[in-house]
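Co-fold these.
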Amino acid sequence: MKPYQSLSQIRSDLNARKTCAVELTQLYLDRIQKYNDQLNCFISVHPEQAFAAARNADQCIRQGISKPLLGIPIAHKDLFCTKGLPTTCGSKMLQNFVSPYDSTVVSNIRNAGAITLGKTNMDEFAMGSSNETSYFGVVANPWDTSRSPGGSSGGSASAVAAGLVPLATGSDTGGSIRQPCGFCGTTGLKPTYGRVSRFGMIAFASSLDQGGPIANSAADCATLLQAMEGYDPRDSTSANVAATNCGDLNRKLKIGLPTHLFKDLDGEIAQNLDTAKAELTYCGHEFVEIELPHSDVASATYYVISGAEASANLSRYDGVRYGHRAESPVDLNDLYRRSRSEGFGAEVKRRILTGTFALSVGYFDAYYLKAQKVRRLIRQDFLDAFESVDLIFTPVTPTTAFELGSLTDNPVEMYQQDLYTIPASLAGLPALSLPCGFKDGLPVNFQLIGRHFDEATILSAAQQYQGRTSWHESHPTIFESSDS
Amino acid sequence: MDTQTIEKLLTLSQIQLEEADRDALAKELDKILAFIEDMQSIDTENILPLAHPVDIDQPMREDKAVLEINRTVFQDVAPNVQDGYYIVPKVITAR
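Predicted complex below.
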């Protein structure tokens, strides 16, 4: 049995009894056991629960019950609360936290029949672009284990790229699904803000956070998105909109090209993107130049807003109700201060302090309010562009996967890794990252951004592209063998 | 960023830092602030702040009490509880 298979192939094999959920679970758990020491993409693995769910799935299949993900193994980014399992958010703060309830995403996916194998590694509290800020150690990129898988959903992207699981959930605040997919050559979607419930997804920046799928193809992302999405009264920002319905793309699209974003791009990455554009043109789509005039200041705006929201969200970690608690506090403030100082890593503290600064008296108007105003202009740029185009085509990352450790001493340079993904995040738009080639053996992805709640057009165009190309079927050779 | 501002931010954030690490933090925050300054060049006269990126109405749900999980379940994950109360260091002390 091969570790890299499309969901439709797995489904067909399960229905034809060529395999069963227990056998699939065994295959992927064996691969996790074999390769996780090299990659460190899982924080926890749960064979007992996985086999119990797999046996149940096999019974359902025998009874002729049909569910979209029945018998399919999956991994969850370790910020989705999973009842009875550890949910660490990559932090010492939550090292021993076992969630008393399921997030809506986990619950929806379980109801769709999927089998949870484990929880994937991530930058601490999703703050990072390299998966180096995790308390549980760095994650390696399966294409070159000396390189970063990207972040913050680096564990999920690395696991899917290495064939340790066919599907994984991620979350994206400023690029945390799309950038690691870019570094690992996987396909990942940040849905429209509000499409996927945030209930039980540990908060970083509440006006930006959005859960989404990571998989080996746009078709598989669509299937997982359909299982994840849906209106949730327990999330007050959940949108009550129609489900994503990807059909065959039989219309010709206008695709916007913000040419100014390409001007400083690495030559070889630009060549890969040109080939992708040519392929989309061959499909009958038309590229038109557009402008996103405020995109140059999107990263600065993002770091003010996300820091401010993080400083508020992370104030809940006080050592009292759950999470790390300092030993022998002398008074209540000592309990708060030491619990937080011992529990949070350096990058989380930096973001909290930056956000606290932006929200503090005397600076609120100049930073936080200013950033919110610029955010409106950035969103308006997109709304204006979408008056005349159906999709927008951009790079995902300025470089291919960088060496682990190469940017850790320079937070600002690390922040600039997300310059192509942040604008769509600020505007709340859906955006897909998908592979289109290689540079020096490392994957290159491009990004398709769509209108609010129009994931269907993005995913349909991406499926059309992937129907004509095979970049999404390239896998790192050392992890490709089917023996476990 | 001066020492006084760093001190204030640490107090507001309930984070403590060794004296020796504060200089390094101040330098890092200065670099981050310089990076953030980029957005100050944008004219935002008469622009309203945007707190929520998607124009949707706030959905309302039925105002109905639902007992989903009891207190014991939540307090099982707390570091220190006693008789249904969260235990913290004594706040009020005798003179």
